[in-house]
Design goal:
Layout (H helix, E strand, L loop, with lengths): L1 E2 L4 H5 L7 H15 L7 H14 L2 H10 L2 E2 L5 H18 L10 H34 L14 H34 L29
Length: about 220
């Protein structure tokens, strides 16, 4: 697949003779300003990450310089969202004060995904349990015989709450899907960190979540 309208140099704001180090520095700076967590857009963030992939790959860069086209394999929608999650985690690692070269980056991202998935599944179970209770509860609301005629408002409210819980469940499931896919994609990769004596540091913190928060 080719993309004649995409300019990786413009996306990162670097000249065509920029070195690989210049490209990476520009990426770190640009990714901070366009990240969705700081008010940027997902489209702009994906463009910056795509530009990094092109310009840090000698073959892809040479092809673009020669033809003006980016030749790449477009992932399906599910993979594209999952790679966006991974790109966000990598951007967070690059912004850490600690030297990322001393971190097993792939393992750190996998651990973070495990934590996020566990949190999401906990929220999902709570919503599902609440929905089951609401369904059982709804039929037990009755108006007293002496009450004036009218709608069973408590029954209606309980039905409304079920709709709200269903939407929450759908939202959590939608957030979990790309996290699980991202975890699967990472199994094809490994990272070789710098060794410090006989110890290899593998801890890495994240200042942002991969989901934007759970509800």
């Amino acid at each position: 697949m080719t993309s004649p309208s995409f300019n990786p140099y413009a996306a990162l704001g670097v000249p065509k003779d920029a070195s690989t180090a210049d490209v990476r520095r520009a990426y770190r700076k640009r990714s901070k300003s366009v990240h969705p967590d700081v008010g940027g857009s997902s489209a702009a963030f994906q463009a910056v990450n795509r530009a990094l992939l092109v310009l840090s790959d000698p073959e892809a860069r040479a092809h673009y310089d020669k033809t003006g086209e980016v030749k790449d394999k477009a992932p399906d929608n599910a993979d594209q969202v999952a790679w966006g999650v991974i790109a966000g985690m990598l951007a967070a690692i690059l912004q850490e004060d600690a030297d990322p070269m001393r971190v097993d980056v792939v393992a750190a991202m996998a651990r973070h995904l495990d934590k996020e998935i566990t949190t999401g599944q906990t929220h999902l179970r709570k919503h599902q349990e609440s929905l089951a209770r609401a369904k059982k509860m709804q039929s037990r609301f009755r108006r007293k015989k002496k009450a004036k005629r009218g709608a069973n408002m408590l029954e209606s409210i309980c039905g409304y709450q079920q709709g709200e819980l269903k939407r929450k469940i759908e939202g959590v499931e939608a957030k979990l899907a790309p996290l699980k896919r991202a975890k699967t994609l990472l199994t094809d990769y490994e990272f070789e960190p710098d060794k410090v004596g006989n110890m290899m540091m593998v801890q890495c913190g994240f200042t942002t979540t991969a989901t934007g928060g759970w509800r």
